[in-house]
Write a structure and sequence with these properties.
alpha+beta; Beta-Lactamase; 2 domains; six-stranded antiparallel beta sheet; five-stranded antiparallel beta sheet; elongated
Length: 244
C-alpha cells in the first residue's frame, strides 16, 4: 500500500504536486462524501482523471475544492486512458482561479500603494534591493515584488520573463496554497517553495500579507537553505521600504 491519509493532513493540490515531482506512474484515489475520484500520473504529469461518468480536467477542478475525505496513492498504476493534456501546474492555477471566483471570502485585496504609480522612487528603491539580492543567490534567475492583486511592484531578471504573466500565475498559486492551509487549520503560510525540473521558486509574504516576494533560481545551482535565508532577510528590507 502506498501513501494514504486524510485531506486534513495533505490538501489535494499538495498531493498532486507531490506525485508529479515523484515522476512515477501512479494513481491518486480521493474519497469525499461518498464519491471517489481517481487521478492518474505518468512521467511527472497528470494524464487522466475520472469521477463517476466524468473524465478529464473537470474532475481535477472538482477535487481541488474537497477539504474533507481520504486519499491513497498507488505507484506503478498505469492510466487506462489519456484525457488530460495540460501541465499539472496549469491545472492547479486554473483550479485556484475557479476557487477564487466561487468563494466570496477570497476576493482579491486591492493594492493601492502602486496602483497609480506616483511614487516611482519607492519602486526604484525596491528594484535596487532586488538587484542586490541577485548577488546573494547562487543560480539566480529573477525576482519580483507582487501585490495580492497580481500586479507587480518591482521586477528584476537575468532571463527573459514576462513579469505580468509571472505575477499573475504566482499569485494564483500562492492563494491556492494559502487557502488549502487555512481550511486545514494548519496556521499561516510563511513561505512556499515550488520545485520544478529546472528551477526553485521561493515565495514569501511581507508582514501585512498584501504583498509577497518571489525569487526564481536554477535548481542545479541554488541551495535551498541559502535561498530561504536570503529571501527572509531581503523581504524584511523590502517591507521596511514599503512602510515609508
Amino acid at each position: 500500500m502506498g501513501l494514504q491519509g486524510s485531506l486534513h493532513d495533505m490538501a489535494v493540490a499538495d498531493l498532486v504536486q507531490h506525485v508529479c515531482q515523484d515522476q512515477k506512474a501512479a494513481a491518486l484515489s480521493i474519497s469525499h462524501s461518498g464519491e471517489t475520484a481517481v487521478l492518474y500520473f505518468k512521467g511527472g504529469q497528470m494524464v487522466h482523471a475520472v469521477l463517476g461518468n466524468l473524465e478529464g480536467e473537470e474532475v481535477v477542478y472538482q477535487t481541488l475544492a474537497w477539504i474533507e475525505g481520504t486519499f491513497i496513492v498507488e505507484t506503478g498504476t498505469k492510466a487506462p486512458a489519456v484525457t488530460i493534456h495540460r501541465a499539472w501546474m496549469d491545472l492547479l492555477l486554473e483550479g485556484a482561479k475557479r476557487l477564487d471566483e466561487d468563494d466570496s471570502e477570497l476576493n482579491l485585496i486591492e493594492s493601492d500603494l502602486f496602483l497609480n504609480m506616483e511614487n516611482v522612487s519607492m519602486a526604484q528603491k525596491i528594484e535596487d534591493i532586488l538587484k542586490e539580492l541577485s548577488t546573494e543567490v547562487n543560480g539566480y534567475e529573477a525576482s519580483m515584488v507582487v501585490g495580492m492583486d497580481g500586479i507587480h511592484v518591482a521586477f528584476h531578471s537575468r532571463t527573459k520573463l514576462d513579469p505580468e504573466l509571472v505575477g499573475t500565475q504566482m499569485t494564483l498559486l500562492l492563494k491556492l496554497v494559502d487557502t488549502s492551509i487555512t481550511k486545514m487549520n494548519a496556521g499561516e503560510v510563511s513561505d512556499n517553495l515550488v520545485s520544478t525540473e529546472n528551477s526553485y521558486l521561493m515565495m514569501k509574504y511581507l508582514s501585512d500579507k498584501q504583498y509577497y516576494v518571489v525569487v526564481i533560481a536554477d535548481r542545479k545551482l541554488a541551495n535551498i537553505g541559502n535561498l530561504r535565508l536570503v529571501v527572509k532577510l531581503y523581504t524584511d528590507r523590502i517591507a521596511h521600504v514599503l512602510k515609508k
